[in-house]
Amino acid sequence: MRSHAPAKVNIFLKITGIRRGYHELRSRFVRIDSLYDTIRFEKKREASSSFDLFASTPLPKKNTVSEAYRLLKEAAGQIEPFFKEHAVYLEKRIPQGAGLGGGSSDAAAFLNLCNDVCGLGLSKERLAAIGERIGADVPFFVYGYRSANVEGIGEIITPFEEEPPRLELFTPPLHCDTGAVYRSFREHFAEMIRPDAAKEWLGLTSAELMERLDPVEANDLFGAALRLYPQLEAYRRPGRFFSGSGSTFFHPISTESEPCRSKS
């Protein structure tokens, strides 16, 4: 009983508004299958009433997997008996605070695996609605699309038919706090918000987007992240794009190379 939780990058990310305190966006998400966490359920030695989560790296007490358990239990019930008998093990490979959606992907993998193992019979739409309450990136991972245009607060997801580009990732030894980066954007870059931003980009392939776009202009959060973490400047290179709220940079590589390489 295990599942992979893949990473993602944002080919572009534009902030289009603020709704009930949440930032609305327009973005192209591309799944990175070669970089993933693994989540698995294993039988406990002794049954217990607690939800037991063991991770290969320290997680905050309020983490995305525990939150997914709480919300799924609230929405569907039926899962407490299973987790009295089984523990959750999470092997982390996706760097945290890197703009790669690791925590969101872990939550989505947990929701999907629970749905299958516990026979809940919930639709992807229902699981995505639960995931939306955890984080804006979770619905994308729930659906499992390789590439998609994502809008609103993450709930409007349109699969994009393309062969995802081959990318090389570079993650510096720097943790970017997502909440802090969005607050920085709101405080210092709110004048950049345009409701129609990037609409004309939605029909272009990711390869075309990387050929045409300036990497800095492609992501509205880069300036906000740079203001908080000026050391990011040392890792910027021509042709390197910035994923999400950071800190990962990426660029396309030739078709003769590996599908995706990750450096740190």
Write the layout of secondary structure elements.
Layout: E1 2-19, E2 22-43, E3 53-55, H1 64-76, H2 80-85, E4 86-91, H3 102-117, H4 124-132, H5 138-143, E5 147-152, E6 156-159, E7 167-170, H6 178-188, H7 206-212, H8 215-218, H9 221-228, E8 241-242, E9 249-252, E10 260-263
Parallel strand pairs: 3-4, 7-10
Antiparallel strand pairs: 1-2, 2-4, 2-5, 5-6, 7-9, 8-9
Radius of gyration: 18 Å
How many strands appear in the DSSP assignment? 10
CATH architecture: 2-Layer Sandwich
Helicity level: 25-40%
Overall, the morphology is globular
Q: Roughly what is the average pLDDT, rounded to an integer? A: 94
Taking the sheet with the most strands, its summary is: 6 strands, mixed
The portion of residues forming beta strands comes to 25-35%
Q: How many separate helices?
A: 9
The figure for the number of domains is 1
Highest CATH level, the class:
Alpha Beta
Question: What pattern of helices and strands is seen along the backbone?
Answer: EEEHHEHHHEEEHHHHEEE
Q: How far is the first residue's CA from the last residue's CA? A: 30 Å
Helix/strand-derived category reads alpha+beta
| pLDDT < 50 runs, ≥5 residues | none
User: Regarding quaternary structure, how should these chains be classified?
Assistant: single chain
* CATH-derived topology: Ribosomal Protein S5, domain 2
Task: Outline the structure in words.
The chain is an alpha+beta fold and 264 residues long. It has a single domain, classed as 2-Layer Sandwich (Ribosomal Protein S5, domain 2), CATH 3.30.230. It is 30% helix and 28% strand. It has helices at 64-76, 80-85, 102-117, 124-132, 138-143, 178-188, 206-212, 215-218, 221-228, and strands spanning 2-19, 22-43, 53-55, 86-91, 147-152, 156-159, 167-170, 241-242, 249-252, 260-263. A hairpin with a 2-residue loop joins strand 1 (2-19) and strand 2. The protein is globular, with a radius of gyration of 18 Å. The chain starts with a strand and ends with a strand.
